[in-house]
Amino acid sequence: MSALHLSFYSAFTLSALGLAFHRTHFISALLCLESMMLSMYIALSVWPIQTQTPSFTLIPLLMLTFSACEAGTGLAMLVASTRTHGSDHLHNLSLLQC
Predict the structure, then answer these.
(1) 89 or 16, which is more confident?
(2) Number of neighbouring beta carbons within 10 Å of residue 61
(3) CB-based contact 41:63 (threshold 8 Å)
(4) Fold classification of 1-92 (topology level)
(5) What is the DSSP string of 10-68?
(6) Which segments cross the bilayer (predicted)?
(7) Residues ≥6 apart with Cβ < 8 Å to 8
């Protein structure tokens, strides 16, 4: 395994661990999700260059599109939850209090 692959895997793993263990604020969960998407985007951008296949060059652009949609939806949910609950703490949000 090269150092490049190790850095992508470690960035994704650290983001997943941050999402799993530091879930106090909604914005920190969104930042962890965005860093996971960023590491996946960079890995998918480097992959066609390493394998020298031009047919997979559109996949990172598709991934970036879905990442932007996910970020916009997450920020809209952050604004909506902050307006209704008064803060972005995740312990205030519950599916049982609809």
Answers:
(1) 16
(2) 11
(3) yes
(4) Helix Hairpins (1.10.287)
(5) HHHHHHHHHHHH--SBHHHHHHHHHHHHHHHHHHHHHHHHHHT-GGGTTHHHHHHHHHH
(6) 6-22, 29-49, 55-80
(7) 39, 42, 43, 46
Counting Cα atoms < 13 Å in the Cβ hemisphere of 75 gives: 6
DSSP class of residue 89 equals B
> Residue 82 is which amino acid?
T
Give me the mean pLDDT over the 15-19 stretch: 92
DSSP string, 62-88: HHHHHHHHHHHHHHHHHHHHHHHHSS-
4 token code pair: 């490049």
Spatial contact of 30 and 78, defined as CB atoms under 8 Å apart: yes
- Tokens coding 96: 């049982």
Find the mean pLDDT for residues 79-85: 87
Residue type, 52: Q
